[in-house]
Structure prediction request, 265 residues.
Amino acid sequence: MTKVTAITNQKGGVGKTTTALNLSYALSLKGKIILLIDFDPQASLSVALGIDGEKIPNIQSLMLSEIEDKELEEGYIVNINENLDLIAGTLDLAGTEASLVNVMSREMILKDVIGKVKNKYNYDYIIIDCSPSLGMLTINALTASDSVIIPVTPEYLPAKGLILLIKSILKIKKRLNSNISIDGLLITMMNERLNLSKNMINSLENTTDTIREKIGLDIKIFKSKIPISVRTGEAILQQKSVIEYEPENKVSKSYQSFADEWINK
Ligand SMILES: Nc1ncnc2c1ncn2[C@@H]1O[C@H](COP(=O)(O)OP(=O)(O)OP(=O)(O)O)[C@@H](O)[C@H]1O
Ligand SMILES: [Mg+2]
Prediction:
């Protein structure tokens, strides 16, 4: 069975793309067969892997084929390593989001594309890197997913944004995808030397307490936490995951322990 997971948070720059890439890379090293989908019109994930989505069939062209009831064109799977594949993103995805307005069952298009991909290939996990918004693309991603991982940074822990995201996920669960569950919150870019980080984790725990009281939902904070390291950005300039760029780096190790925690939960 393929598990489909969206990495999502409408807040920008919290480490969604970095998490999608490094979680997938860590899983691929464990022998899991992974498909990454770059579902952000910024196409940062494709750029980080050195892939130009404009030149090949990409997630936008697959969605257009689906909307037009055509067969999916060939050649959309890009091989990153032995166990890791990518469906590239493209800036044109922004246009698709706008044109979805007039499409019947517009929330289901990505789900239908993924259904066809699942039937054809045998992935253990499909990981979707979402854009920083709660728009129609993210609704498509959540409708297509079995679960959600929510990266959060210690600098950004306002309860409001998180509660809004959780409420959106619950709305999708009610109306479009009863199957979806929230795997948990992953703290990224944590500065271990700051006492502040401790306070911020407390504040995040207060938020999950509030969510439990107000919405009746128990949301887990993953034990693994991702520290800050400049190597993360350097790796991207080399078009690599941090794990490939510097395996012994603290970010590499923390993503590997997160991968273990996530698949064994
Ligand atoms: N653990 C880390 N340590 C240091 N820098 C990091 C770390 N994780 C991510 N970054 C950097 O922070 C920036 C934002 O990360 P990333 O692109 O993964 O966030 P995002 O949530 O996908 O952003 P967007 O919302 O724009 O898609 C990037 O420059 C990335 O290299
Ligand atoms: Mg991103």
About this structure: Residues 178 and 224 are 28 Å apart (CA to CA). The longest strand covers residues 181-187.
